[in-house]
Design brief:
The protein is mostly helical. Helix content is 75%, strand content 0%. It has a domain of 161 residues. The two termini are 15 Å apart.
């Protein structure tokens, strides 16, 4: 039988599971690659100028910079790649951890209300749907799958697809649960009204993919932005309604 202490414990776990990613982090690999590329091209240009007689001689320090340019560029590209893998990993990881936490939270709320004599049949139905639909995905696998030869890029697009869609569907189930919960509590005279300020839109993978192609990847930057922003806003909304709901449940 669930207790209010158990519910509070699942709420506290959001500090670990609901990771709010900085919006700039997914773009850091691109920034590193582009800036290092331009730096490398400038070094090569200066070296070429010196070979064509525009500079009489290179000092030892300048010569070392030129010949170390390529290794440094390679190291920066590897660093950017590692950061990109980390970002995809954290996208999938926080999806998994948040979904697991909410599943435990909803079940504990349902069981707590049931122990208090509430009719929770509707909540039980929604919890069963969540158990079936919200499966854990391997974060390490999906972070590395982009390196599969020839098809890695398409597999990464699939990661974008399921992250957008999973959070959209997750939020719809959450809204159904909270709406049913509000009605159940209202029958006993407890007021729990909830309005979502920033609902996650149903983003079209096909449309986003086509727009990314015809804009030569520029729209893809916005797509990456949504993969970070949507869950961030969802987690912030959680903090608001969870605290409000806890205040109501403590009075039962």
């Amino acid at each position: 039988m669930a207790t209010i202490d158990q519910i509070e414990e699942y709420v506290r776990k959001r500090e670990f599971t609901d990771y709010i990613m900085p919006l700039w982090l997914p773009f850091l690999p691109l920034i590193i690659v582009l800036s290092s590329f331009f730096w490398f091209m400038i070094i090569l240009y200066l070296h070429d100028q010196s070979l064509n007689g525009y500079r009489v001689e290179l000092s030892g320090r300048e010569d070392a910079v030129i010949y170390s340019a390529l290794p440094i560029y390679v190291i920066l590209v590897i660093l950017a790649t590692a950061i990109n893998v980390y970002v995809v990993y954290k996208w999938v990881w926080r999806r998994n951890e948040h979904f697991k936490r909410q599943k435990l939270l909803f079940n504990s709320i349902k069981d707590f209300l049931k122990s208090k004599g509430f009719d929770v049949a509707r909540l039980e139905s929604i919890c069963m749907e969540i158990d079936v639909e919200e499966n854990v995905k391997n974060a390490v696998l999906w972070a590395l799958i982009q390196f599969v030869p020839y098809i890695g890029g398409f597999l990464l697009i699939y990661v974008y697809h399921f992250l957008n869609k999973d959070f959209y569907r997750h939020e719809r189930r959450e809204d159904h649960f909270l709406g049913a919960l509000s009605s159940i509590l209202a029958r006993r005279g407890f007021d729990f009204s909830y309005t979502r300020y920033n609902p996650i839109p149903d983003r079209s993978t096909i449309l986003y993919f086509v727009l990314s192609l015809i804009t030569f990847g520029l729209f893809g930057l916005y797509w990456v932005y949504t993969l970070t922003k949507d869950p961030n806003e969802h987690f912030i909304e959680h903090r608001r309604w969870e605290d409000q709901l806890l205040n109501v449940l403590r009075r039962l």
